[in-house]
Design the sequence.
C-alpha cells in the first residue's frame, strides 16, 4: 500500500534493480584456481574479501593482488580476475528502468549499494547494453556507493550519511533492499522500508507509487 508521506525512494542495486547470483563468483574463482567452491568461499570469508573491497580498503590493483595472494596463483591476469568477479552480475530488465523513469516524475530517487568499482564498471556496461543509458548516474539523483563512502550497509552511519547528503527526511523516505539486515539498519534510523524478496520484483512492490 502506498504511503502518502513518501517523497524519496532509495534503491539497492543487486537483486532489486540488477539480477545477481553471488555464489557464481566463487564458482568462477574455483574453476580458475582448480580448487573446490567451498574452499574458495572459506578463503573469501576468512580474509573478509567483500568488506575490504566494498569499503574501499582495497583499490582495484590491491584487490587483484590480494586475490592472487590468497589463492596462491600469481599468474592470474587482471582480466581473468575481473571476469570471475563480475560473473555474479546477471541481467538488468529494461522494465525496471522504465519504472525508475516513471517514479522520477514524482519522487526523488537514489541508489545505495554495497559494491566495488569493478562491479560498477560492468553494471554500467550491462545498463547501456540493455537500455541505452550509459551510467547509473543518469537514472538517479545521487548514486551512493559503499566503496566511495567507506561504509557498508547495514551500518546505520551509511543511512544517516545518505539522508544528510541528499537533504531528505527519514520519515519521508522509502528504502528497498533484498537483504533483511540492511532493511533493519534503515529501520533503526527511521526510514520506511520494503524487503524485496524474489520472485516478487519492484514492479509489484511499487505499482501503487508509479500511478
Sequence:
Amino acid at each position: 500500500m502506498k504511503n502518502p508521506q513518501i517523497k524519496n525512494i532509495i534503491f539497492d542495486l543487486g537483486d532489486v534493480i540488477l539480477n545477481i547470483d553471488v555464489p557464481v563468483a566463487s564458482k568462477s574463482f574455483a574453476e580458475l584456481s582448480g580448487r573446490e567452491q567451498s574452499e574458495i568461499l572459506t578463503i573469501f570469508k576468512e580474509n573478509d574479501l567483500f568488506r575490504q573491497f566494498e569499503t574501499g580498503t582495497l583499490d582495484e590493483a590491491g584487490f587483484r593482488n590480494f586475490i592472487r595472494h590468497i589463492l596462491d596463483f600469481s599468474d592470474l591476469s587482471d582480466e581473468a580476475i575481473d571476469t570471475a568477479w563480475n560473473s555474479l552480475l546477471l541481467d538488468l530488465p529494461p522494465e525496471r528502468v522504465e519504472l525508475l523513469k516513471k517514479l522520477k516524475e514524482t519522487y526523488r530517487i537514489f541508489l545505495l549499494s554495497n559494491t566495488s568499482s569493478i562491479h560498477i564498471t560492468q553494471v554500467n556496461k550491462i545498463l547501456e547494453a540493455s537500455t541505452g543509458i550509459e551510467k547509473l548516474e543518469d537514472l538517479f539523483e545521487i548514486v551512493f556507493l559503499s566503496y566511495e563512502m567507506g561504509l557498508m550497509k547495514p551500518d546505520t552511519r551509511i543511512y544517516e550519511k545518505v539522508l544528510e547528503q541528499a537533504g531528505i527526511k527519514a520519515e519521508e523516505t522509502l528504502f528497498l533492499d533484498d537483504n533483511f539486515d540492511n532493511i533493519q539498519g534503515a529501520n533503526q534510523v527511521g526510514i520506511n522500508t520494503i524487503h524485496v524478496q524474489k520472485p516478487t520484483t519492484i514492479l509489484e512492490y511499487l505499482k501503487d507509487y508509479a500511478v
User: Anything to note?
Assistant: The beta strands are 8-11, 108-113, 142-145, 173-177, 192-195. The mean pLDDT is 96.
